[in-house]
Amino acid sequence: ACGKSATKDEQSAQGGDSEKSLRMALVLPEKIGVNPFFVQMDEGFKKAGKEFKVDTKTIESTDPAAFEQNLRAAVAENYDLIITATFQAEDALKKVAAENPNKSFAIVDTAIDLPNVRSVGFREYEGAYLLGAAAGLSTKTDKVGMVAAMDIPLIKKYTEGFKAGLESVNPKAEFLVNYVGGFNDPAKAKELALVQFGKGADFIAGASAVGDLGVFEAAKEKGFYTSGQDTDRTVEDPEHIVLSQLKSTDTVAYETVKDFAEGTFKAGAVNYGLKEDGVGLTYVTRDSESPLNAFVGQEVIDKVKAIKDDIVSGKIVVKDPLQQ
Amino acid sequence: MQQLFDAAMFGSTLRIMTPILLAALGGALCSRVGLFNVGLEGLVLIGAFSAIVGNYLFGNVLLAVLFSIIIVMLFSALFAFISINLKANAIVVGISLNFLAAGLTTFALRAIFDVKGAYYDKNMVGLPKLDIPLIKDIPWVGTVLSGHSPLVYLGIIIVIALQFYLFKSVSGFRLRSVGENPIAAQSIGIKVRGIQYGAVLMCGVLCALAGAQLSLGQVTMFTEGMTAGRGFIALVATMLGQANPLGVMGSSILFGFMEALSIRLQGFSLPTHFTMMLPYIVTLVAMFFFKDRTYAQDALKAGGSSR
Amino acid sequence: MLLEMEQITKKYGSFTANKDIHFDLREGEIHALVGENGAGKTTLMRMLYGMEQPTTGTIKVRGREVSFATPSQAMASGIGMVHQHFMLFPSFTVAENIVIGREPAAAGVFDRKKAAAQVDELGRQYGMPVDPWKRVGECPLGMQQRVEILKVLHQGADIIILDEPSAVLTPLEVKELLANMKSLAKLGKTFVIITHKLQEVMDVADRITVLRDGQVTGTLEAKDTDVEELSRLMVGRELVRMDKPASVPGEAVLQVEAVQLSGAKDRSALNNIHMKVRKGEVVGIAGISGNGQSELIQVIAGLRKPDGGRVLLSGQDTTNWPVRRIREHGLAHIPEDRYMWGAAKDASVKENGLMGHHHRLQKRGMIKARAAKAMVESWIKQFSIKTGSAETKAQFLSGGNLQKLIAAREFAQDTPFLIAAEPTRGVDIGAMETIHAELLRKRNEGAGILLISSELSEILQLSDRIIVMYEGEIAGELPAAEATEEQISLLMAGGKERV
Amino acid sequence: MNRVKETLRGLVQPLLAVLIGLLAGAIAILVVGGNVIDTYAEMWKGAFGNFYFFTNTLARATPIILAGLGVALAFRAGFFNMGAEGQMILGGLSAALTALYLPGPGWFVCIAAILAGIIAGGVWSLFAGWLDARFGMNLLITTLLLNYIATYFGGYMVSYPFKDKTGSAAMAQTPMIDQSVWLPKLFQGMGLHAGFIIAIIAAMVIYWFTHKTVTGYEIRMLGSNPSFAAYGGVRRIRMMMLSMVISGGLAGLAGAGEVLGTQYRFLDGSLSSASYAWSGIMATLLARSHPLGTAVAAILLAALQTGAMGMERNTDVPLEVGSVIQAVLTLFVSAQIGYSFLKRRKEKKSNATTV
Ligand SMILES: Nc1ncnc2c1ncn2[C@@H]1O[C@H](COP(=O)(O)OP(=O)(O)OP(=O)(O)O)[C@@H](O)[C@H]1O
Ligand SMILES: Nc1ncnc2c1ncn2[C@@H]1O[C@H](COP(=O)(O)OP(=O)(O)OP(=O)(O)O)[C@@H](O)[C@H]1O
Ligand SMILES: [Mg+2]
Ligand SMILES: [Mg+2]
């Protein structure tokens, strides 16, 4: 990914004048790993860096304490814009941004109300709602499942949205949800998917980060249908991965870099949902390389498109599960 | 209840148990020669990773497993060398090994596959699922026993073989003598170091199998830290089973069963945190009934104390 | 000559443990090796057995020069060794312990029945019967010793080295051992025996080699010498014979009343024990080890709670008191096993010496380091304990020196009552002399002493009264002046039933 | 004179280990095509490069020191307390809850929260001790198991009853603790907080306690030979309980320090993902349970971690090189290379059982 030359440029920039080119850091509270959310964001960030001739540096962290140290170090190392992401970054960014009012920050996926921070949020539950509706319309057994990462509030954006969508179209459908207990355990995720399959679910959505790979495998083995998250995962196995809930973190990162490079960067909150095309569902909001699986069928997609239009127009309001 | 204890559940008990059982048997061998191996977690992780690398290199599961065995044996040889020849405290070495494995696999993931977090290739073929001819048609039993990866069956065979080896064969007898009193064993010309090396290397083989079962049997991929504490559970199983193959199997089954049960209990409005706690609580309770202080303490003493 | 060791020198760094030693063996003889603690006896024999290699010098077996890099090679030349600390596997059976290394097997499967048969046969052949199926950990020490010897015989050894074999045995067991050695020697086996008990040497040995400070000070025919000469050669000076003034017993300092303690397998370890120790007397407890002596000490010292009865110390019922309170009330205790109870091997000499004194030598919860050091250093001088310094770890002391440290520590408690269990086990005669003198001095100063020893001569020499224990009961009590060795032995063996 | 020589000789071992560790790191760096010298320079900068990074290192060392001290004390008493992680989590949780819900002036609540953390960690550890003393359940296993239970329990508490419902409410965490209760930062704008001072004082106190006091003496003797201690009048159960309480209390203090000084709330997973407890155990083992040594080893390990972070920020070499170095280093520090062979041999010999 990032070449050696970038490192050298950076070092020279550190010593020399910073007029030459802008330097931006993407400081992430976790390791990127195979988490599509971060992978995409990193891609969008780098792409913008190239296009707008900005030095980009991605910094991953292993734990919350390390994240704060990295964030502070990025300030100390004098980057012009520091982008970070997710709820996990909130606390640290609040502190650091408040202490450094002259620095510019951006945070993706959550909101921080500070004059030098631009916040970009997502309404994933809208995407999840669509996915749930599609599942509810497609299921033949009236049982659908979801293998979620952890029993934590964040994940409710997925489980609750899904459930609402499901119930809206198919009230008699049973919703099974199981938690892996971590973001990194495909073996257990697979085991959970098998259990749900055993209970009769014919569609089991993956929402367990790396664990989704286990769910996909179970689907392949047992022949049920599944879906992925964030990017279009249907390409990996169109016969079983029939849908994917989308979240355009790459666009967000790209736009942020672009705005800053072009001098149009503004602090404040921005929010991406279905309306802004920040979240979505394959075939509904965006086309896919892989053909639509017959399990879902065009008819369902058309119905879900209608739901989507209703959400965009405000006719349907999907409740934010975190706002009690 | 019926829904809870269906055949599939016992099937998953077997699957969940296998990596733990294999690693715990390795741990038992080490204990039997007086080395307390806290590094099981790391060895299994390396096993899981190198199985995937082997599969990537050779495109053949058998070779992949063999490759994994060789790599893990190298690391267990390192464990043996440092704790036997360089007389380091085995517990320190084990803990360091865990760190090393975590760092090295993540590092190598990037160095070899140029990916982060996980390596996954949908064309990769995992271990086959064996359908056992006659048994698979028996209604309940078939669901439980048939259709697992060969390593599941191998694990059970190894238990029996190891039980026989340790308690019936001459070589197993000598192996046990090393753990019982290494100085006495040495004094009658038993090659203590050789046997210790043998046991540790064998532990490496078993951990490699455990790892392969994780990355090629249960799923077909490698993810960072995918052992997720199974090595430590194996350690618990080793001690709970008093380094006795059958005992180790008993405790591994207990753990696999509780884990399978806890998955199914998630459906029943109990907070998941508590269902996940369950296997550990039950293990604690089991310890209450099966305790053999002397054995555990000997193992520790042999492992060297930090004092 | 069956075996010759010539010009053997062994250096550990700058320290010379053996210097220019000549040592030889004739076929079928019993050869005793004697010397003070640290004289180099074990070192010499370890070289013969391939556990150490000489720095310089040669070893010849039957005229052929050999060099042993490992015990296996020595074994192949027919040399076997029974170590000072037994080399046994407690959880294995007697048969397993004996055949290990040469197990009878079919296709790699250990034939345990055959092993048992072989062991049975071996035991019968050499007149040392054993129960092949019993776990060694459950055997008394004498039986374990026998297992060791049988193991060596099973390995086909005809030169057998015994390092302090009698240190842990009861008189009867010793007698049996010596008899066995003699009969084996008649069958052509050759023995080297290391021991501190010179009387044994006179009883059993054909020839005697004396070591002092790593050098040979003499090799003598047993019939031409006596205990006095041997001691002189060992120590390099005359030993003074101790004389014991008559005791003037005062009131009871220890009273044990109807003490009851259950042991393993619903046998009672102690059954209805009544006894008394008065001020100014030494009460000796004789008995084959494992007949309740250890348990009795533990009950008195508060390490175990009896199931019934009570213990009174200086008139106070201390039965359920914690150890520390009992000690502070007036009990000191030289424990029977110095490594298990008496010391912490990886702590320093000073720290080991401090135990039991540490509550006294404190100020507001802090140990008075200087006073502690001074105290321990004074003992080092008084008992001439050989140690690097007070900071040396206890594990680097020889057993004898550690024993002296422990004895010094307990004498210094200055209590009216002292338990002295095996106070001179494995200690050379010089040190034994010191410890005996101290015990008597303490008695003469008016303290009551309970002496437990498997060494009958020690009991006879020091006690004013002798109690014999058998199977957890008191089998008899005799005034020392009238007791004879035969009488006691008989009581120890359970009266008339066994001899 | 002799002492100097001894100290120098004692240094050979760790220095050699550091060398081997750096060598292993160098190989890893070369494998990914990095420049060894530059990379190590970045690492050094990341750990000690300037005052800011230096304080960063000390900040990271703080919980490691405290957890390590706890483990060290238990080891000294002869108990393999592997439960530092669980004790830390419960300590952190209790501190957070106390800080949130106890009324009173800031300084008072802060002290109370620290005490609550110590007590919670201590009680959790004591529980394991009690299981051992009362039922003979092996401490090493129970503490390992209790870690999982504590982790899930902590997770539950902040996912449901005590969850932060303000803001985005997306995290399993308690609400933010009021600023008046925070442990003060030692320097403006830097991560280092007063917990570090507490940790250093704790190291000295534990050293003083184990080496100078009567109770410490008894604990050490109990650790080196329990029968000897019993014989000398040490009350084993009492001392075991005491050392387990202190041990767990220190781990709890480590958790409380992180909550009150860094995170200002209890956040699910934040204490375990950083492996503070395991690093603490490593530090203890490196220092052979010497309290002051443990503190030094903890700072060394923290330096490796922050150094690796710096390296990752400024080069393309992945972070894991740091853990590789750390692991190889500990592997070899405990290895007996060279002269200490002799000492060990004797030890082995004297371990022969007189059965
Ligand atoms: N491995 C060693 N390294 C250094 N010195 C040693 C070693 N083994 C023995 N020594 C020294 O050699 C001397 C002789 O020891 P040895 O064990 O032979 O004595 P011993 O005559 O058997 O004494 P004891 O009667 O106590 O058994 C001792 O002073 C001891 O300090
Ligand atoms: N590696 C060593 N370094 C230093 N001294 C040693 C070493 N090995 C043995 N020694 C010394 O050798 C001597 C005798 O050792 P050994 O183990 O035979 O003692 P022991 O037989 O238990 O003592 P004792 O016969 O007095 O009961 C002791 O002084 C011991 O300290
Ligand atoms: Mg000796
Ligand atoms: Mg000796």
TrEMBL record, chain B:
InterPro entries membership: ABC_transp_permease
Signal peptide location: none
Membrane topology: Multi-pass membrane protein
Pfam family, one: BPD_transp_2
UniProt-annotated location(s): Cell membrane
Main localisation: membrane
Domain of life: Bacteria
TM segment ranges: 12-31, 38-58, 64-84, 91-113, 150-167, 194-212, 232-258, 270-290
UniProt KW Aminoacyl-tRNA synthetase keyword: no
Name this polypeptide is given: ABC transporter permease
UniProt source species: Paenibacillus cucumis
UniProtKB/TrEMBL annotation, chain C:
Sequence ranges assigned to domain ABC transporter in this UniProt record: 3-238, 254-496
Keyword Transferase listed: no
Organism: Paenibacillus cucumis (ex Kampfer et al. 2016)
Keywords tagged on the record: ATP-binding, Nucleotide-binding
PANTHER family membership: CARBOHYDRATE TRANSPORT ATP-BINDING PROTEIN MG119-RELATED, GUANOSINE IMPORT ATP-BINDING PROTEIN NUPO
GO molecular function: ATP binding
Protein name: ABC transporter ATP-binding protein
InterPro entries: AAA+_ATPase, ABC_carbohydrate_import_ATPase, ABC_transporter-like_ATP-bd, P-loop_NTPase
From TrEMBL, chain D:
Transmembrane helix recorded as keyword: yes
Record GO terms (molecular function): transmembrane transporter activity
CDD domains reported for this sequence: TM_PBP1_transp_TpRbsC_like
Transmembrane segments: 12-37, 57-75, 106-127, 139-158, 190-210, 239-257, 323-342
Subcellular location: Cell membrane
Alphabetized UniProt keyword annotations: Cell membrane, Membrane, Transmembrane, Transmembrane helix
Pfam families, per the entry: BPD_transp_2
Highest rank taxon of the organism: Bacteria
Membrane topology: Multi-pass membrane protein
Main location: membrane
Keyword Transmembrane (UniProt): yes
GO cellular component, one term: plasma membrane
PANTHER family for the chain: ABC TRANSPORTER, PERMEASE PROTEIN, GUANOSINE ABC TRANSPORTER PERMEASE PROTEIN NUPP
Protein name, per record: Nucleoside ABC transporter membrane protein
Organism: Paenibacillus polysaccharolyticus
